[in-house]
Amino acid sequence: SFPHVRCASIACLISRITPNRMPRCHNVLDSDSDSEIGWSRTLDLPRSRQSRKIEELVRTAAQATANEPGTSKGLRTSTSRLFLGPAAKRIKLEVREVEDTETEDDKRRNIANWPGDLLNHLIDYLPIDDRIKMRCTCRRLRDIVDNQEMMHTYEIYIKRLDEAEIGLFLPVSRKEGRFVIHNKKFTWKERPLLRTIPEMRRGMVNWTRHHRTRMGRIRTAIKAMFRISMIYRINVEQVNLSNSFIRDLIRVMNGNEIHSLDLSVQMFEQERPDLTLLNNVPAKSIALSVRLKDREPLPHIERFLNISIHTFKQIIIDVRQDSWKFKSSLHYRKSYEEYGINDAALMHYMSGDVCNFLRLKVICRYITKEGVLSAILHLRTREDTEASRGFCVLVHRQVTDNLIANVKSLSQFGDELPTTDAAKTNYDGHRSYHTVGEYLEIRNIKQDMTKDKPPPPLSEVRYFRKGSDEKEKYMTCRVDDDIRWDPFEQPKFQHRPV
Amino acid sequence: RIYPLMRVTLTTSDGASVTVSRQLTKHSGFIEKAITDMAVDDNAVPLSAVAVDVDDATLKLVIEWLTEHRDDALPYPEKTDEERRADDIPAWDQAFVQKWDTKEDQQQTLYAVITAADKLDIKGLLDMTCKTLANKINGKTVEEMREILQLECDFTEEELAEIRKENAWCEN
């Protein structure tokens, strides 16, 4: 029917150009006689002689081709010449026999007809994004994917790719958990309002107005993942923290519990993000790494800590001042020291029922040796021993002088375990006291002492009382809080913020 | 107990008969069960009689794979979710899959071998072929998946519109 349609289209075009020369006569025609007089039944337009000739030739050639002996697969081919216009046209015809009914063999080779167990076996080898796509192919596969046992996804990443792009990253496989396979770069099709551009230059418009669309897509993607998978950790990196973003994040996880949320964000003073909103995140542990854009928000973080201590089982807080902005390490440090927590606050955090482990990656200037010993004594005398409980704080080195000896002078809490060779040769030769019931470790922080005014020497004290739930691995785990962590290192952000 | 010298005659769906050693058939849970349960005479196992739809060409491929893997340890190790991965296909198996004729035939042959491995309960072959198919569709869009797997979209227009809206992120 191809030549017919084409000629009809051409005729239609001609009729539009010269309507008076080619009057439409369908009113006076009998529809039954269309084929005899050569009128198109569908368009009521005259068909050319050539189109009818082509149609007839094709039909004849197809019949002749079908009668010829074909290949083993029933394919028959022939080439015909058509004389149309000044040059001869050559057309190739292929005729294949098609059976109307689906054979048993075809059924078996259509994977939608495979048994459920076999399809499950195939889907087991697909990563999460391929499973989501697989469930969009047909109903059968959608049902199979939906009814399969929930898969486990270790972690996903939401990252800022550059100043205006947010991406979702998935791990390539379980073995290479941190390797990025998909760089889902969501293009920014919407031009920002002109009046917002100066605000953006000043860093005042970060998330709220223009990132919502992209976050909407990320939210949809993560919701699709939650449908078929349990996600252990969500990492958010290099985004500007605002109330709007936090609400988006909570909406993403609404109704789905994860183990840990790892936020590595920057905070502007003018946005004043309400960190207490994070208490609505359905996660067991939270790691908040904040890059301060101003000096103000530290009390803000302490306020968050006071509330989150009753929400999360494990809290890791890292705060850094944006040193490039002030160009002075004095300001960089000062912000920590002015707002550090004191002994009473540490005792308050340790006496809560929910939080099992608190790590503060800020210099706690006001914590003294007496405060550390009081916290240790308190943890020792707690009645509940099911969960391991402890803390890890960064203090001035004088606090840790003779700390192990002081702890040993208290009544012994379990039999002492020998220090392993691995611990002896560990980074910086840190000191530790290890018994059946508790673990104490003191690590000196390496600092640049070649400066004119050397910084105060610092040490990190890590203590936890071992519980019966074998969760001590969270306390000693060096994955989320690496041993080479340095409070004075430059921030890891790759791009200068807006 | 497996007697390595004992031979088993397998009859395919298209009437052909193939005689193989018990050393090969021990990897097939189905054949081993058939031999035990059916108490067949002369160790002749008619596969077509027990509704196993395996043709002659496919069975030859299965036997070729079994011959190469005849010394594999049994029982086949069960893998957990964490251990399961699709990029660890041995070199011989990769070459074995790649040598199948044209692209279209390869796909059809792959499907035939997968279904045969499933029905004959040959776990190693089933794993290998499923990994191969998973690698083929890995990272493809939904349309490409449909094309590779030769699937027809049977969603209604409304369902399709909803799916497109939900999964626009993975189509980029």
Walkthrough of the structure:
Chain B: Keywords: Ubl conjugation pathway. The complex is a heterodimer of chains A (498) and B (172). Chain A is α/β, with parallel strands linked by helices and 498 residues long. Helix content of chain A is 34%, strand content 23%. In chain A, the strands form 2 sheets. In chain A, strands 5-4-3-6-7-8-9-10-11-14-13-12 form a 12-stranded mixed β-sheet. In chain A, strands 1-2 form a two-stranded antiparallel sheet. In chain A, a hairpin with a 2-residue loop joins β1 and β2 (87-96). In chain A, α1 packs antiparallel against α3, α9 (212-228) runs parallel beside α10 and α14 runs parallel beside α15 (369-381). The two termini of chain A are 61 Å apart. Chain B has a single domain, classed as Potassium Channel Kv1.1, Chain A (2-Layer Sandwich), CATH 3.30.710. Chain B is built from 8 helices and 3 strands; from the N terminus they run ββααβαααααα. Chain B has helices spanning 22-25, 29-38, 56-68, 91-98, 103-120, 123-137, 142-149, 157-166; strands at 7-11, 17-21, 44-46. Chain B has a 3-stranded mixed β-sheet with strand order 2-1-3. The N and C termini of chain B lie far apart (56 Å). The mean pLDDT of chain B is 78. Classes of the chains: A alpha/beta (498), B mainly alpha (172). At the A-B interface, α4, α5, α6, α7 and β5 of A face α5, α6 and α7 of B.
